[in-house]
Design brief:
One of its GO terms (molecular function) is NAD binding. Keywords: NAD, Oxidoreductase. This is D-3-phosphoglycerate dehydrogenase. Belongs to the D-isomer specific 2-hydroxyacid dehydrogenase family. This protein has two domains: 114 residues, 3-Layer(aba) Sandwich (Rossmann fold); 192 residues, Rossmann fold. Helix content is 38%, strand content 19%. The protein has 13 helices and 13 strands. α1 runs parallel beside α13 and α5 packs across α8. The longest helix has 19 residues.
Length: 316
Amino acid sequence: MKVLANDGVSQSGIDALEKAGFEVQTTTVAQDQLVNYINDNEINVLLVRSATKVRTDIIDNCSSLKIIGRGGVGMDNIDVTYAREKGLHVINTPAASSGSVAELVFAHLYGSVRFLHDANRNMPLEGDSKFKNLKKAYAGGTELRGKTLGVIGIGRIGQATAKIAIGVGMNVVAFDPFIEEIDIPVEFFDGQSLNFKIKTVSKEEVLKQSDFFTLHVPAQKEYVIGKSEIEQMKDGAGLINAARGGVIDEVALVEALENGKLSFAGLDVFENEPNPAIKVLMNNKISLTPHIGAATGEAQDRIGQELADQIISILQ
């Protein structure tokens, strides 16, 4: 059995697959050459992350394929229903990267409420000549403790984010059309844990109550946060998106940052990946990362191992 990890896979995943007798290839094949490569090399398992698209052309024309695996949560780059109708197994790793994404959300939050993203731009340029000016400019920071975090989508990643918020001392309110109530266990270093029950409320209530927002929703046709939703938020609120590009109207977002309705945003994903809008990239009120939510060594190890376990279970 041959596995092509076209967007890469952790060494732990490779080791587990090879130990089970699979041949693992980590060649990155261009999108338009994938069909020929899979057929020429008789690939049985295609593993991707977010870069490679698995559409009907691959599904229809690669008879050796048995499994399509997504290292991560969202599978909008795979025609999942069609593949399964054609008899292929489609797998992903929904739990493996939750903690890593949640920590990135708080990296953006902490950095933004203390202006770190902007200070790190300006200190190398003006720190030696305008130190006092910069000190004054960044002196009005905000604490997260005691503030309200609105979680839009409280699945696995939303829950992991809520755990951190609770540990920080924040109030958490959540909206999720599929979940009415959820238990959030918060574990501590010494084995102790506390359980917190969160009852979801309407989206409008979350928009009205929250000081900061974090989105954890799949890709969808309509904006989850557009101009009308921003207008319902508190003045000076902050917004983080480490979910999917296209769930926030970036034009409305930039406008709200420029007119002061929102104080900051943190974006790990963008409408036009991999070519984000220049107005977004150049806005000094936006903390920016290049879609790295799951890009920690620990998460990638878990993703690789989880994919390997599923593949071995299906094919052996």
